[in-house]
Specification:
The structure holds 2 protein chains of 2 kinds.
Chain A: E1 3-8, E2 14-32, E3 35-41, E4 57-64, E5 67-74, E6 84-89, H1 95-102, E7 109-112, E8 130-136, H2 140-153, E9 158-165, H3 174-183, E10 188-194, H4 210-219, E11 228-232, H5 235-247, E12 255-258, E13 282-289, E14 292-299, H6 305-311, E15 329-334, E16 337-339, H7 347-351, E17 354-356, E18 360-362, E19 366-370
Helix pairs in contact in A: 4-5
Chain B: H1 2-12, H2 25-50, H3 59-85, H4 90-93, H5 129-151, H6 157-185, H7 189-207, H8 217-223, H9 231-246
Helix pairs in contact in B: 2-3, 3-6, 5-6, 5-7, 5-9
The chains are: A alpha/beta, B mainly alpha.
Amino acid sequence: MPQAHWIEQAGGKLLVMAQFYPLRVSDIRRETRDAVVVTLEPPADCAGDFKFIQGQYLTFRRRFDDQELRRSYSICAGRDEGVLRVGIKQVEGGWFSSWANEELNVGDTLEAMAPMGNFHIPLDPDKKRNYLAFAGGSGITPVISLIKTMLAEEPQSTFTLVYGNRSANAIMFREELEDVKNTHMGRFNIVHVLETETGEFDLFSGILDREKCDMLLERWVDAKNADFAFICGPEPMMLAVAESLKAHGLSESQIKFELFASAQPGKAKKRAPKPQSAGGSVCRTQVILDGVRQDFDMAKNGQSVLEAALAEDMDVPFACTAGVCSTCRAKIIEGEVEMQANFALEDYEVERGYVLTCQSRPLSDRLIVDYDQ
Amino acid sequence: MSEETGLFDYLEKGGKLTSPGNAPPRYRAELMRIMASFVDSEMAGAAGFADCINDAPGIAERIAASRVVLEKFDHAERVLKIMADFGANAERYQSVHPWAARVDRDMDLGARRQPGDMRLNVFYYPLAGWTDAVVMNVLMGAATIVQLSELSRCSYQPLAEIFRDILPRETRHAELGREGLKKIAGMGDAAREKIRQSIDYWRPRVAATFGAADSPRFALLERFGLRHEANDALLKRWAGEAETILAAF
């Protein structure tokens, strides 16, 4: 049975928050020195929940040192392949990716939510379209899912991949991409751009910066006839590619970005310190917003933390004020509060010290609340 | 915080975020605020307009009004789904505020935020009959097009895509309003006088939806790539379009 987070509603009715399913690891393949491809099997009764759309990702959770970490990894299989696979590249200092690369075994269970993400466009088997994709390093993972699915489901469309890597031995899915080329003869092109190797042409060495992209689009890759372009990789690369594509005639709505996991913090952060003992009726409060700290006193049994901060003319974020939308979420750095209602935060967020400030009243004499974390 | 600084630099240069996992806390909060304001405005707007279906003179107008109501609820639902990706409790959200509630027509709320939901203040004022509803729809419809065009460029790609999808339908709502207004204007001097009165009532209230010219939040939103053009520039564009539309009446 899938595991779920439940919260109690006022009327006693229960409501599902986020659902995790146990997936069995059926295969682990070492793709490069620091990346693995993990094949997963959902439980038979939940197979339908894991029918993915090309370019989507899975969010995993695992406890490290009593703290829950959640990480997302892109599915790197085509829709027609009938398997669920993710690529996990080891990030320096990243707990989850290191664990997956070093300790995960076939037969283990990983907990994951159903596929999410919208790095895709609707496909039409009757259409004859030209797609471009730019991938940097492990940014290839969602892109290979796009390539395989789109070439299979739109038999008249073509796909050109510009794929940047540090060196030849860092290229993920090198053989698989060659196979795709052979399966869809004449409809799939790859341009490898390698940082550390100087080949015959300067065009194919170096990094995917603006200059390189402009050169490629002028001399090698046909942007004029492209219907859509997909970009996944490090942020500077994505910016450079997008700017270059726009300069070569593509509109914003023809360019799809996928920002991958490197933007997420690698390590779990420690929970807030233990609360102080409660004594008086007033709480000395400090609220941090946009790097500015503001101190004020607030009554323990009066306003919420949000109301008190607003009364101090702080422009703190909020929307529903009913504990539902989570716009006013902040982290308790010191002290303790009581939340009157919580219909939005999940257990693991509360464990890490997050609260809904519209619902929080102080219990301790000292309180530090940070909206920047 | 160096990871975050890098991400803000990326956003400032036009980069897009693509999932809740990418969004730093302050970005998330401002994005949620934008989404809540849109959802609440669509919910409250549709709820108010629903009451006017019975005031419509003919079947064609009733169909048009029903369509506007239906699609506005649909737009609210689409954006609420994105809020749910960030942890909002979508099911509960739909019933947490009294969407059809209105203030007295003579009250002046200015641009101050009201307690309760995040709807734009213009949706707190009650509609007074069919002509009034059509005028409001024409003026606010034009404002919505300007505001959605701005938000279609926002740096949260899944939301920008939804706004780009919604924009043609909101444009159609505004067209339906103009067609309705033309019909009313053809009904004689008394009808045209009513139109003028409603224009006088709604014009400043719709103008207030663009917010203060010197909004301190704009700089932050611009840095996050959530906004691009300042409030007063958007207001000016709307005012010009409203002038052209209303010149005929």
